[in-house]
Design goal:
The protein has 295 residues and is an alpha/beta fold. It has eleven helices and eight strands. Bound molecules: zinc ion. The site of zinc ion has 3 residues, from loops.
Length: 295
């Protein structure tokens, strides 16, 4: 075997063994090389320039779930906290690219009123698989792995009977079996968002879980309640917090700049007008024994 191929094979082995052996987490630079290489509309330099950080939370294959915080830039008291995430389904590429785009927009705003935590790619293993996969490297749909109240009773039963054991929708062996869903739950617990925005594709609609009256439309995305599923983020967090699910119309193609801008400005307007003064403290529920049992 020529040395280059030997190194490649060894690299693949290390990668595959990462879950069991807890490989050291990849650097931000290495992760940006991979993400930027996969996403033409982002590219490596733009990912590197985005100011993303890695804080010890990583995927099955040891890639960090990169994030960036943007403090509010206004003097209007305690700002609302917004958790914005893309790519929980790894094959929805546009949902990652658009979060990069919106992150740059937040950085340019002079008076933006929210404290943001932005996580553009929360399922990096799925995005970087060849071809990209909805599920993570363990074959689990992360958006069915959150500890919703009905998980133990319903998740596997629903998967078998309602999806015909669709491997793209496998909820895992138990709630929070996956490092990515554990990391997101921990982020919700520690960041205390007032609202969560999760971007998907390709249904071309706006979905909403939460105590408020839902928005009717953001740009060309109109409200269509897609229903709740055992273990979904909306089912889990939407009991206490608004969870906005943006479904872009195409997983591989970005909206035009005008369409993207309109979704964004409509959403910001809605958030400013509709966030509750005091969100119920979801994190207290996460501290209870029930939630810990998931892993
Ligand atoms: Zn999705």
């Amino acid at each position: 075997m020529i040395p280059q191929i030997a190194r490649l094979v060894a690299g693949l082995f290390v990668c595959a063994a990462g879950a069991a052996l807890a490989e050291p987490m990849a650097s931000v630079e290495r992760t940006c090389e991979l993400l930027g290489g996969r996403l033409q509309s982002v590219g490596v330099p733009r990912c590197l320039a985005a100011g993303l950080r890695a804080d010890g939370i990583a995927s099955v294959r040891g890639l960090p779930l990169l994030y960036r915080d943007f403090p509010a830039r206004s003097q209007r008291g305690t700002p609302y906290r917004v958790l914005l995430m893309g790519g929980i389904h790894g094959d929805e590429l546009s949902s990652v690219s658009i979060v990069f785009q919106w992150m740059e927009q937040i950085g340019r705003e002079r008076f933006q009123p929210f404290h943001w935590r932005v996580m553009p790619c929360v399922n990096p293993d799925g995005l970087l698989a060849d071809p990209p996969t909805r599920v993570n490297a363990n074959g689990v749909d992360l958006n069915r792995n959150f500890p919703s109240r009905d998980w133990d009773r319903e998740a596997l039963k629903y998967w078998r009977t309602r999806t015909g054991s669709d491997p793209r929708r496998y909820p895992g062996t138990r709630a929070l079996s996956e490092p990515e869903s554990r990391a997101l739950t921990e982020t919700i617990r520690s960041f205390h968002p007032d609202v969560i925005v999760s971007v998907h594709a390709p249904y071309g609609v706006l979905d909403f879980d939460g105590p408020q009256k839902p928005p009717e439309r953001f740009g060309y995305l109109h409200l269509a309640l897609l229903g709740t599923y055992p273990g979904s983020l909306g089912n889990f967090a939407g009991l206490s917090l608004p969870v906005i699910t943006l479904e872009l119309p195409n997983a591989g193609l970005m909206p035009t700049p005008a369409q993207s801008e309109r979704i964004w400005t409509d959403m910001l307007t809605w958030l400013e007008r509709n966030l509750p003064r005091h969100a119920p403290p979801l994190y207290r529920r996460l501290d209870s024994e029930d939630w810990k049992s998931g892993g």
